Hints:
Number of helices: 9
CATH topology of the largest domain: Rossmann fold
Distance between the termini: 38 Å
Bound molecules: adenosine-5'-diphosphate
Largest sheet: 6 strands, mixed
Oligomer: single chain
Strand order of the largest sheet: 6-7-8-3-9-10
Structural class: alpha+beta
Number of strands: 20
Shape: elongated
Number of domains: 2
Amino acid sequence: MGSLSCRHIYKYYKGEQRASVKDFNLEVEDGEFIVLVGPSGCGKSTMLRMIAGLEEISEGDLYIENRYVNYVSPKNRDISMVFQNYALYPNLSVYENIALGLKLRKQAKHEIELKVNRTAKVLEISHLLEKLPGQLSGGQKQRVALGRAIVREPQVFLMDEPLSNLDAKLRAQTRAEIMKLHSQLKTTTIYVTHDQTEAMTMGSRIVIMKDGEIQQVAPPQQMYDQPCNLFVAGFIGSPQMNFIAGTITRREGEVCFETKRVRWALPSRHVEALNSAGQNLRQVVLGVRPEHIRIGGAAGQPFVGTAQGRIEMMEQMGADTYLFVDINERANIIVRTEAHSGLTVGDSIEVGFRMERVHLFDAEQGHNLVLQEAIRA
Ligand code: ADP
């Protein structure tokens, strides 16, 4: 049905020296839900628009279902696109908006009616078919836009930030609906967002981009557990991974991570990875997720790196609490802890870093020096 193959794709906009998309390589299997994610300006929309045929491909080859489509017009690519701003025709009813693509393709009236009604039922908008877009809420408009995309039964759906005009609650709801829809229709989908939560919750695989280049391609949990570099580690996950700059030292038979204030022994997995990365590597950035730092003593626990700190701020999230702790490193560290810990701002505490779970990144290149198979908490 809808496989997609992007081979060494580049985009140079007119008059721009720098490529907006650089060497984009991706094989998408039929039925996958791929999320392109990255900060604003990283080239996500440009890439999506090249797949749609709305932007010319400067270099490289694009195949949809094994058909070379670089020079095929958008309407002949067998794709449907859903935009952030819905792009509905204001003077056409919901029914006519959904039916339009089929009409233009000269499908029979009774067939159109059947398809529109079926689509409306799936999206639970049957009662809105006679209304005009101006009479609908944002969420309803987006459903109509989805309906228009679905009704054509394309090989590939392309979605460009389709939820960003919705408020938080509706976003979460529509997100779930899009996922449900995908599990029913199983249409290959390329979904663009700058929101890491959407990427984590929706993607069967995430493609994370920066400055026009793919950084990593992986399923969400793998992306979270095994970020390939500092950028990915910092982008995926909320609150962010904590980073501490330091040095690798070898003393008294131990390999340690050291800063001016702490010296933490590293587990053998890390030591082996560092050894194979090269003996003279010294400057690193240690990364640890907020849930991998514990509060209180680490007596009797192997490989827990401890530090003294003071709680500077607390964010109560309901189910858990984020503590912002000053441990005298460059930035406060964030610790995710249970809601009813009895701690308050100003408390002096000891924090324990679970060294088995820390990442070490090359301070210059940023790549992860201890990539590993996902391990159980
Ligand atoms: P994103 O979708 O990730 O926010 P875009 O694909 O919109 O990023 O933009 C990627 C880069 O290409 C940016 O540097 C942007 O300024 C540039 N760009 C986008 N559209 C054009 C255009 N029509 N002409 C020139 N440069 C563009």
